[in-house]
C-alpha cells in the first residue's frame, strides 16, 4: 500500500491524539435515546403530512440517516448544503453550495441538521424556506449549544435531541477540521 504523504501522516497522528484525549460529552446510547424521542415527536406531528426532509449537508448527514430510519410513515428526502465553518472551528460568512431540488412550495418542510450553534445557518435556511413558500417549516437538530450568542435571540429548533456545553464538539456528523464526523457519540477536545 502507498505510504501517506508527510502532511497526511501528521493529520493521522494529530486526529488520533485528538480522539485519544477527547472528553466524551454524550455517549452513543444517549444519542440513540435522543433520536428515539425526536422521531416519536416528529411522527406525532407530521406522520400524516407527506413531509419533505431536507438534510443540511455535510454535518446533518448522520443525524438525518439515523432519524429517517426511525420514521415509519411516507416522506421524501432531499438535501441542501450551506456552510460557514468550512473546516475551521470558528464560523464565517454563510456560503450556499447546493440549493434543494424538491420544490418547497406548499409542502411541509423539515430541516435536519447536526447542531444549532450560533444559529446563523438555521436562520438563513428558514428565510429560504419562507421565500420558497413552504406550507409549514419545522427544524430538527441533534444538539443545541448552550450560550447567549444566537444570531436571533431565543432561536430554537422545533425538535432538539440534546443540549451541549459551550465547547467545540465533534462526532455524529460534526467535524473537527474535517475529521471525526464518524465518531459514534459527541466529544470535545480536552481542555478546550
Ligand atoms: O449555528 P451555526 O453557528 O450557524 O453553525 C451550525 C452549522 O455549522 C455546521 O456546518 P458547517 O458550516 O461546518 O458546514 P459542514 O457541515 O459542511 O461542515 C453545522 O453542520 C451546522 O450546519
Ligand atoms: O461545535 C461545533 N462542532 C462542529 N461543527 C460545528 N458547527 C457549528 N458549531 C460546531
From TrEMBL:
<dbReference type="GO" id="GO:0000287">
    <property type="term" value="F:magnesium ion binding"/>
</dbReference>
<protein>
    <submittedName>
        <fullName>Hypoxanthine phosphoribosyltransferase</fullName>
    </submittedName>
</protein>
<dbReference type="InterPro" id="IPR029057">
    <property type="entry name" value="PRTase-like"/>
</dbReference>
<keyword id="KW-0328">Glycosyltransferase</keyword>
<dbReference type="GO" id="GO:0046100">
    <property type="term" value="P:hypoxanthine metabolic process"/>
</dbReference>
<keyword id="KW-0808">Transferase</keyword>
<dbReference type="Pfam" id="PF00156">
    <property type="entry name" value="Pribosyltran"/>
</dbReference>
<dbReference type="GO" id="GO:0032263">
    <property type="term" value="P:GMP salvage"/>
</dbReference>
<dbReference type="GO" id="GO:0032264">
    <property type="term" value="P:IMP salvage"/>
</dbReference>
<dbReference type="GO" id="GO:0005829">
    <property type="term" value="C:cytosol"/>
</dbReference>
<dbReference type="GO" id="GO:0006178">
    <property type="term" value="P:guanine salvage"/>
</dbReference>
<feature type="domain" description="Phosphoribosyltransferase">
    <location>
        <begin position="27"/>
        <end position="159"/>
    </location>
</feature>
<dbReference type="InterPro" id="IPR000836">
    <property type="entry name" value="PRTase_dom"/>
</dbReference>
<dbReference type="InterPro" id="IPR050408">
    <property type="entry name" value="HGPRT"/>
</dbReference>
<dbReference type="GO" id="GO:0004422">
    <property type="term" value="F:hypoxanthine phosphoribosyltransferase activity"/>
</dbReference>
